Amino acid sequence: xxxxxxxxxxxxxxxxxxxxxxxxxxxxxxxxxxxxxxxxxxxxxxxxxxxxxxxxxxxxxxxxxxxxxxxxxxxxxxxxxxxxxxxxxxxxxxxxxxxxxxxxxxxxxxxxxxxxxxxxxxxxxxxxxxxxxxxxxxxxxxxxxxxxxxxxxxxxxxxxxxxxxxxxxxxxxxxxxxxxxxxxxxxxxxxxxxxxxxxxxxxxxxxxxxxxxxxxxxxxxxxxxxxxxxxxxxxxxxxxxxxxxxxxxxxxxxxxxxxxxxxxxxxxxxxxxxxxxxxxxxxxxxxxxxxxxxxxxxxxxxxxxxxxxxxxxxxxxxxxxxxxxxxxxxxxxxxxxxxxxxxxxxxxxxxxxxxxxxxxxxxxxxxxxxxxxxxxxxxxxxxxxxxxxxxxxxxxxxxxxxxxxxxxxxxxxxxxxxxxxxxxxxxxxxxxxxxxxxxxxxxxxxxxxxxxxxxxxxxxxxxxxxxxxxxxxxxxxxxxxxxxxxxxxxxxxxxxxxxxxxxxxxxxxxxxxxxxxxxxxxxxxxxxxxxxxxxxxxxxxxxxxxxxxxxxxxxxxxxxxxxxxxxxxxxxxxxxxxxxxxxxxxxxxxxxxxxxxxxxxxxxxxxxxxxxxxxxxxxxxxxxxxxxxxxxxxxxxxxxxxxxxxxxxxxxxxxxxxxx
Length: 660
Hints:
With 660 residues, the protein is mainly beta. The protein has one domain (5-659): Beta Barrel (Maltoporin, Chain A), CATH 2.40.170. The chain has a 22-stranded antiparallel beta barrel. Strands 8-36-33 form a 3-stranded antiparallel sheet, with no helix packed on it. A two-stranded antiparallel sheet has the order 4-5.
């Protein structure tokens, strides 16, 4: 309320694998209006130049051949083009807040946050596509179309605190909106459905993904104030409501003409999903300070969760070309799916201070995560998967429409300590988590749409260690280590999809079944490791401050982080890809002039230019297939790619503070 300040910041950096200079500039203004009213605002602009190249983009979708003779440069140039550094980011973000503190007993802040992001493409690598006819670089994506994405996020928040004397009443209200508009190459998914799309030599498919969500939240908390009483407490309530809407449209230009029909908009698939989810909770917690050294805390939370979702899928091109529907018709027959849950979550914590520098604690607590809609249209009531139904269908079975909530029971025992006159902090904990109905990734049986489903049970157990050591006044080191084993504890039927090789046929060589006959599912088994996270993680950081004779300070820092391998699918099943572990190093040198309120930092992230993958789409089975078009020419699926971290980054950032 007293200082008028303007802080500016900037960052300029470049990637070892990209061209151009990326920038990130921002400013923060703090402006007291009166002794009780103040305004603060900040704005930032990121312009990231990217580093992923796309060498094999189709010149004209549905006309150009996405699989030319790759040994003939002229044929490649006639059908494909290259675009470098596609994963650009143009992000504008900001925050404005007004704080009003008219008295000792009332304080309120109204704030608005926004972010508008325009992303040029995904940060992925196609180097694991071993069935592709030419080598693929580490930072090359081999999708056929560009994959831009736009996201808009707005958040209004109002928080107020009232001092009631015996307690503080806090109200936190939030309203947010989220909009997204994205495009993806969808050719490989349609190849995998076995509907002979690959027979059309110029076949390329792309999507438009739209999303529009609104969320309202309200929380009230009443918290006791410090007093001579051995008891302290908190009670409150929480409410959240989200209205969601999403659509997915797939376009296959000119394949209607290839099949001898007409669908001018080329709309091959259209799905809409909308609905509402609500959560209400009431909670309370009491702490009893038995002695200055020993305390125990108990708490409970009652929650109620309701989901109502509507979804529908249409195959407009198929219906227009083969079943005689109008060439511009879209028919959506919405199916309703609901889910609800309610229950109690509990917490019990006890701690004992052996001294001012040593404390041990134990906690038992429950966790809860809501379910949701998978956004997949329901299979029609007369659907017969034995082959009597139409062979082209994308739908969700009743147990695939939604996924339920998951709960956990968490056990943790730990110690927190300080040594050497508080210069060394060392903390350690062991934990065990029991999961009920854990949410895991899967796919629909018909159409292979990505979905989330509930497994029957899982558990996680591990240990966490951390330290912070101020070796001298100028030299600091800190680090952490964690080990966690996360596994299924119960069999989960039809969890992991995979491609059979060879595809099953009868004695006449005809497919067994008419829908996705090459696709099968594996059950998740007890002991199967869960995907997506490493067993071990390690981090280390050190910095040294060097005062200069002219009053300036130089700070040298080095950080290291390391993880072990990660599975892409539960238990390594379904031709899972195991992503290897990796280690990253960063260095920085910061120059500070305390009297002038500025800093300049030179830095290098990913010092040794390590290539590292953090996620994967597809499986090793996808690499076994090379298809053929009607001319007998090869068609190369490109469904295997990985998410990657940035290569080496070299940059300079600065900050400067001004008094106004």
